[in-house]
Automatic annotation (TrEMBL):
Signal peptide: none annotated. Belongs to the class-I pyridoxal-phosphate-dependent aminotransferase family. It comes from the Bacteria. It is an enzyme of class 2 (transferase). Its EC number is 2.6.1.-. This is Aminotransferase. Its cofactor is pyridoxal 5'-phosphate. Keywords: Aminotransferase, Pyridoxal phosphate, Transferase. Residues 30-384 form the Aminotransferase class I/classII large domain. CDD domains: AAT_like. PROSITE patterns: AA_TRANSFER_CLASS_1. One of its GO terms (biological process) is amino acid metabolic process. It comes from Gallintestinimicrobium propionicum.
Length: 399
């Protein structure tokens, strides 16, 4: 049986354990193509590593900065997979990439400092800034020729600007940044003495047509004011283990990150079992990610082609992620109104655009996750097509 066959998905388990808008939270019979979380069980090496650890019966405190072998495995994988030269001593394991974003914001921002947040982008950029007492300045991130147009970015920098949020690859667009894009962002940060919150949680899920380029490709010396987060939920499916890391190339900045993380007081930190799983991810399971990518590319191409044959909607073909950003503006409906209709009428759950998740710039769009089997994806798209036909008839719209 292939790793990503439909028969490998355990719906009975997902309906009990998969929360955050997924199988365990939707009414019976609803297909959730929602939160960015795979429907497949994790690689067997992760399961085996965790079981080997558990069987000894000890769950003692861990080193405050994390297991050395975990930090080493992250450092090695960052170099081998992305060409990022990061000293393992400057990597802090933490309880999720999301928590890492909050720590970075707390480290850099003071009351009233401004952070430039792209609109649309994942809501955690906005929320981490606000939690630190910062002010969010939204930069309208529009696509031009398939990439984010950064030509107006400098106009959003003020004397109060302290940091720029970089989501690379970008969620929800699924776009990677070109070398000239990264150079432009870095040059602005150098010119105005700004920090960069660099979210690379999607950097493993990149399709072959467009390679991933990290901000670190500009050289480690230029990245001393970059603070990065990475996680294991998107690539390896261990979201419930709350495993992530923060890293930088500057020792002083790393010390400040550690201080703000509360790991030294043991009020913060990452669980031992999560580090065991994370080490297995980094050192043994990239073969699984590569196979997953092959499966995801087939799903992506099928879904984009299907969606673009449906009336009144348009789907972008992402460079990265297992998410589709779909334009529904032709219906003249709020995103949430559209998603509520699909859930009620055809039993399909997808994520709505709008302020809550991605910013006001995503109003009139929906996001669809395709990290599932071809069969489940096909049925979900069948339901979407049926729902669109129903909407067109009800509203008496022209196809």
């Amino acid at each position: 049986m292939a790793l990503f066959d439909n028969s490998n998905i355990k719906l009975d388990v997902l309906k009990k354990r998969a929360f955050n808008y997924r199988w365990a939270e939707v009414p019976d019979g609803v297909i959730p193509l929602t939160a960015a979380d795979p429907d497949y069980p994790v690689a067997p090496e992760i399961q085996e590593a965790m079981m080997d650890y558990v069987k000894d019966g000890y769950f003692s405190y861990t080193p405050k900065l994390g297991y050395p072998e975990f930090r080493d495995s992250i450092s090695k994988a960052l170099m081998e997979r992305k060409g990022e030269e990061i000293d393992s001593n400057l990597i802090l394991p933490i309880d999720s990439a999301a928590r890492g974003m909050y720590v970075i914001a707390q480290t850099v921002l003071r009351q009233g400092d401004e952070m430039i947040v792209f609109d649309p982008v994942d809501y955690l950029f906005r929320e981490s800034c606000l939690a630190a007492g910062g002010k969010v300045v939204l930069f309208p991130a529009k696509l031009k020729d398939g990439y984010i147009d950064l030509s107006e970015l400098e106009n959003y920098i003020t004397p109060k600007t302290r940091m720029i949020g970089l989501c690379n690859p970008h969620n929800p667009y699924g776009v990677v940044y070109r070398p000239e894009d990264l150079e432009h962002i870095m040059s602005l940060c150098e010119k105005y003495n700004l920090y960069i919150m660099n979210d690379e949680i999607w950097s493993d899920i990149v399709f072959p047509e467009e390679p991933f380029r990290s901000i670190y490709s500009l050289g480690s010396k230029r990245c001393r004011r970059v603070m990065s987060v990475f996680g294991f939920s998107k690539s390896f499916g261990i979201a419930g283990l709350r495993a992530g890391c923060v890293y930088t190339t500057d020792e002083k900045l790393f010390e400040e990150i550690v201080e703000n993380s509360d790991v030294m007081s043991t009020a913060g930190g990452i669980a031992s079992i999560s580090q065991i799983a994370g080490t297995a991810c980094m050192s043994k399971c990239y073969y699984w990610v590569d196979a997953f990518l092959e499966h995801l590319k087939k799903n992506r191409d099928y879904a984009v082609d299907r969606l673009n044959q449906m009336p009144m909607i348009k789907a972008y073909r992402p460079h990265a992620t297992y998410l589709l950003y779909v334009d529904i503006r032709a219906f003249g409906m709020k995103s949430e109104e559209f998603t509520d209709y699909m859930k009620e009428k055809v039993k399909l759950a997808v994520v709505s655009g709008g302020e809550k998740f991605f910013g006001s710039g995503s109003e009139g769009y929906i996001r669809i996750c395709f990290a599932t089997s071809h069969e489940i994806l096909e049925e979900g798209l069948n339901r979407l097509e049926k729902g669109i036909d129903m909407l067109i008839r009800e509203k008496n719209l022209e196809k």
